[in-house]
């Protein structure tokens, strides 16, 4: 059996970090016999430059037919003046919704070797291990009506709609409870049920699904309080269940607690299929300078392997191997600029990737 991977490096540092992730995947492929078939395609701003579309049909077709997608990053200042409908970010939203990747898992874990890279005190962050489960194909990101219209008096009116149906909430709640069962068995569901009716429904549906998971502890928290608790006492959280927008915001906050957005993987999943997409973006300031940290993308590739049905048990073993290799290289003191602290060995994107690949024997 082979596993087909659509490789979509995208823009900016996406190109550099995906190159390293591909080399690492080739290494575990050789070791575990995963029979990976990787095919590249354009996505984001570079696809717009070539085809006037950030998500060309051929790229979408490749992604749909693949067993997994390895995405780098999209966007950059060059494409910011473009109309919303053809912005690079649209490609990301298009892939998510066309592949129905409704569950975005964003772990925020503090690596013992990196505690001092956080902007918060050591005692606050040491031991953080949070999983943000973010709903990814619904909510205010996709709700209609949306858009900006001209009013008769010359003013403009902008609209986005926050909308969720019961089944959409149920399926993401199940993902959160299932994930919690493999962890510390705690889910905190985030909403703004004191103000927004849609999230009041969210709270009710999550409470209902919880009846099938009574071994897991469920709590609810308003999003403003959650934002505060994340910096005040982050270790209280195990799984944070969020809608699309709250998850977008809180996952950046959770990531930064660990001091290293360049370390954190993210995978977007539907049944048996996944897409890796790091949360660090295309980092417009540093592409092409061999400065980006390839770890987040490599660890995302590992997460996707783990969830790719076509890669099976071997895929799960290969995923663990990639994680171990990254930890080993950190333990040896190698650091890219984003996580560098005094006394550590500063390396570039290529060397970091090569060392991780070499750690896989
Ligand atoms: C993320 C990003 C995206 C999002 C953008 C680039 C569309 O911020 O993956 O968190 O808002 O989902
Ligand atoms: Mg974001």
Topology (elements, then pairings):
Elements: E1 3-10, H1 13-32, E2 36-40, H2 45-51, H3 57-65, E3 68-73, H4 88-98, E4 103-109, H5 122-125, E5 129-135, E6 147-150, E7 156-159, H6 166-181, E8 186-191, H7 197-210, E9 217-222, H8 223-232, E10 239-242, H9 244-257, E11 267-270, E12 273-276, H10 295-307, H11 312-331, E13 334-335, E14 345-346, H12 349-358
Parallel strand pairs: 1-2, 1-3, 3-12, 5-10, 8-9, 8-10, 13-14
Antiparallel strand pairs: 4-5, 4-11, 6-7, 11-12
Helix pairs in contact: 1-10, 1-11, 1-12, 6-7, 8-9, 10-11, 11-12
Bound molecules: 3-isopropylmalic acid and magnesium ion.
Instruction: Give the amount of beta strand, in percent.
Output: 15-25%
**CATH class category name of the largest domain:** Alpha Beta
Helix-strand category: alpha/beta
How many strands appear in the DSSP assignment? 14
Bound molecules: 3-isopropylmalic acid, magnesium ion
Integer count of domains? 2
The major sheet is characterized as: 10 strands, mixed
Strand order of the largest sheet: 2-1-3-12-11-4-5-10-8-9
Please provide the ordered H/E string of secondary-structure elements: EHEHHEHEHEEEHEHEHEHEEHHEEH
Q: Indicate the low-confidence ranges by residue numbers.
A: none
Tell me which CATH architecture of the largest domain applies here.
3-Layer(aba) Sandwich
| Rough outline | globular
Percentage of residues assigned to helices: 40-55%
CATH superfamily of the largest domain: Isopropylmalate Dehydrogenase
Instruction: Give the radius of gyration.
Output: 20 Å
Please work out how many helical segments DSSP would assign. 12
What is the typical, i.e. mean, pLDDT? Answer: 95
Straight-line N-to-C gap: 23 Å
CATH fold title of the largest domain: Isopropylmalate Dehydrogenase
């Amino acid at each position: 059996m082979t596993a087909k991977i659509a490789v979509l490096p995208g823009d900016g540092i996406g190109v550099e970090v995906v190159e390293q992730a591909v080399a690492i995947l080739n290494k575990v492929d050789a070791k575990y016999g995963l029979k990976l078939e990787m095919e590249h395609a354009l996505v984001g701003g570079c696809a717009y430059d070539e085809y006037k579309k950030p998500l060309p049909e051929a790229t979408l077709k490749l992604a749909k037919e693949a067993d997994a997608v390895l995405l780098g990053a999209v966007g950059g200042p060059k494409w910011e003046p473009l109309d919303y409908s053809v912005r690079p970010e649209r490609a990301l939203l298009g892939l998510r919704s066309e592949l129905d990747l409704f569950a975005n898992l964003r772990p925020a874990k503090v690596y013992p070797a990196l505690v001092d890279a956080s902007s918060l005190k050591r005692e606050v962050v040491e031991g953080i291990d949070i999983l943000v489960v973010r709903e990814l194909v619904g909510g205010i990101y996709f709700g209609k009506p949306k858009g900006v219209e001209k009013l008769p008096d010359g003013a403009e009116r902008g609209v986005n709609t926050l909308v969720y149906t019961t089944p959409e909430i149920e399926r993401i709640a199940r993902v959160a409870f299932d994930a919690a069962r493999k962890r510390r068995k705690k889910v905190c569901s985030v909403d703004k049920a004191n103000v927004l009716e849609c999230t009041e429904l969210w709270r009710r549906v999550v409470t209902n699904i919880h009846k099938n998971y009574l071994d897991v502890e469920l709590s609810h928290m308003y999003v403003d309080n959650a934002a505060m608790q994340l910096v005040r006492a982050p270790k209280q959280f195990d799984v944070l269940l969020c809608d699309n927008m709250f998850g977008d915001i809180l996952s950046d906050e959770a990531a930064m607690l660990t001091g290293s957005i360049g370390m954190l993987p993210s995978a977007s999943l539907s049944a048996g299929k996944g897409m890796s997409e790091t949360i660090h973006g295309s980092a417009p300031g540093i592409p092409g300078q061999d400065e980006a940290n390839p770890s987040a993308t490599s660890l995302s590739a590992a997460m996707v392997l783990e969830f790719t049905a076509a890669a099976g048990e071997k895929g799960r073993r290969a995923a663990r191997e990639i994680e171990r290799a990254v930890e080993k290289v950190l333990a040896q003191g190698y650091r890219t600029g984003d996580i560098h602290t005094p006394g550590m060995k500063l390396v570039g994107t290529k060397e970091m990737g090569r060392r991780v690949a070499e750690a896989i024997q």
